[in-house]
Structures are given as structure tokens and as C-alpha cells.
Specification:
31% helix; 7-stranded antiparallel beta sheet; Umud Fragment, subunit A
């Protein structure tokens, strides 16, 4: 014989918040609970899929908004069921340890099925003009990189620190820098000066400096860099050969970036991923220009 017992609306709503569908199990709506739990599981799969992150920020926002709306609706429906009657018929499956088992299952699935993308914040100015302080971007977790890719990596001298810079030279290449110009395998990378508003490209710290924005071309990739007209020790760098599984990286703010010119090459094992696009920025004055800006 099924036992009739009173249920808490607060606890029902809380369980639905933890795992949409779990609250319905708590109030005895077992068949409906199974269907809702399946949908919750599908949302986990969608969150970890390439679709959510790879195409654009709009896909990322759409999935998160739909997930949020789904959770709110499930909480509302669960509490609404209890408004009709606080007393429900329970079966053997309606035990606290079974709720804990389902919750633990979803926590484990979230840990096992990890997204192939990760979100980072920009805290420095070394990647001006492409990235500015306050930008938040999504990075694809991969060790496959190419010329011109903006990569996230563990700083070789202290792997607790995460850096973001651009791949300039690959294994097997020879690279040197003369008078601010990069020479790759004996050929100088083409630079085209851009006429652009400095405020759109530089953090406030550098607006007073005599800096120009250029488009640099590197193996069919082009991207913007900032060059300071003042003289720096980093304007020149002796020729080196890049060994296997190592990369030479530079910040786009060439004269104001601590990169391979100062501390050496990035081992492949240290690479975390490749930047895809800006999904949010606290630079609200040019939010439209930076929102959903592609970085590849």
C-alpha cells in the first residue's frame, strides 16, 4: 500500500533547482520525473557539445537561456502541483537516498562529460589591439595550433600562471626580429598600416603613447598588432630555430608584452587551447564592436 505523506514546497522547488525533474520525484510524480530527468541529461550533452561554443556567442547564449527557462518552468510546475495538494502518495522509490543517488549521478556526468571549451578573462594589455582589459573570451581546448592562432597556455616558468599570446613561428621555422619587423624563414612578414581610432584598440594606459596599428600577414593569416614608435630592446631578436613541439609566441601589443623574446619558447604540452571569440566585455562603450568578435 502506497503511503500518503505531506511534502514541502520549498524542498520540492530546491530539488528541482538542483536537477530539474528531481523535485517531481520528491512529490510522487514519478513518470513525469523520468521525462524531465531525461531532458536535463540532454541539456548536459548540449552544454558539452561543439555546437554550444564553436559557432558564435549566440549559440552559447541560446543554450544557456533555454536551460535557465527550462529550470524555472520545472520549478514552477513542481510547486504548482503541491499547491493543489500537499499530500502525495509515495512508492518505494521515493526515499532520500534515491534522490541523493540521482543527484550524485548528474554531478558525476557533469564531471565526466566536460565541455571542449573554456572561458577566460583578459587582465592585461599585452594583446592590444585585438583583446583589451575586461574582455572575456571562449577558448577551444586543443593542442593543434597554427600560424596566427591566439593560444592560451601555461607559462613555462610557472605553470600555475595562464598566458594568452599569438603563435608566430612553428616547429622547424627560423625566426628573428629586426627593427620591430618579424622575419620568418628569411622572409619579412608584410605589415600594412591601418587608419583606426586608437580608443577602439588600446587600453587607456597606452593612449598617450605614439602607437600605430598595423595588419600583419603570416602564412595566409592576418591580424592587427600595435607598434610603439619609441625604441625598445625587444625591437631586435637574434635568429633562432624552433625545435620540435615548441612554439614562438608574441603579444599583439608588440613593445609592451612579455613573450618569447624574454622567457623563451612554449612547449606543446603547455598549450591549453585556441581563442575563438569574445562572448562578453566590460568595455561597455564599444560593447557592440567587441561582442561576438571572432579571434580566429
Amino acid at each position: 500500500m502506497n503511503k500518503v505523506i505531506q511534502r514541502s514546497k520549498v524542498l520540492a522547488g530546491f530539488l528541482s533547482f538542483l536537477v530539474p525533474g528531481l523535485g517531481h520525484l520528491y512529490i510522487g510524480q514519478n513518470n513525469k520525473s523520468v521525462k524531465l530527468l531525461i531532458v536535463s541529461f540532454l541539456f548536459i550533452l548540449i552544454h558539452s557539445s561543439d555546437f554550444t561554443y564553436s559557432s558564435s556567442v549566440y549559440a552559447y547564449l541560446l543554450v544557456n537561456i533555454l536551460d535557465f527557462i527550462y529550470t524555472i518552468i520545472v520549478i514552477y510546475l513542481c510547486v504548482k502541483e503541491l499547491k493543489l495538494s500537499l499530500y502525495v502518495k509515495l512508492r518505494k522509490i521515493n526515499k532520500w537516498y534515491f534522490y541523493l543517488l540521482i543527484y550524485s549521478f548528474f554531478i558525476a556526468i557533469n564531471s565526466i562529460i566536460k565541455p571542449s571549451y573554456i572561458i577566460y578573462d583578459i587582465n592585461g594589455s599585452g594583446m592590444n589591439p585585438v583583446l583589451k582589459k575586461g574582455d572575456r573570451f571562449i577558448s577551444k581546448l586543443t593542442k593543434k595550433v597554427n600560424y596566427g592562432d591566439i593560444v592560451v597556455f601555461e607559462y613555462p616558468d610557472d605553470e600555475s600562471l595562464v598566458y594568452i599570446q599569438r603563435i608566430i613561428a612553428m616547429p622547424g621555422d627560423k625566426i628573428e626580429i629586426k627593427d620591430k619587423r618579424v622575419i620568418l624563414n628569411g622572409k619579412e612578414l608584410t605589415l600594412n598600416k591601418l587608419n583606426t581610432d586608437m580608443k577602439d584598440n588600446l587600453d587607456e594606459l597606452y593612449l598617450s603613447r605614439d602607437i600605430s596599428i598595423y595588419e600583419e600577414h603570416n602564412n595566409k593569416r592576418s591580424y592587427s598588432i600595435a607598434l610603439d614608435k619609441a625604441k625598445f630592446s625587444s625591437d631586435n631578436y637574434h635568429e633562432i630555430s624552433i625545435p620540435k613541439d615548441h612554439y614562438f609566441v608574441l603579444g599583439d601589443n608588440r613593445n609592451h608584452s612579455a613573450d618569447s623574446r624574454y622567457w623563451g619558447l612554449v612547449p606543446k604540452k603547455n598549450i591549453i587551447g585556441v581563442a575563438r571569440y569574445i562572448y562578453f566585455t566590460t568595455n561597455f562603450k564599444d560593447f557592440r564592436k567587441r561582442f561576438n568578435k571572432k579571434l580566429y
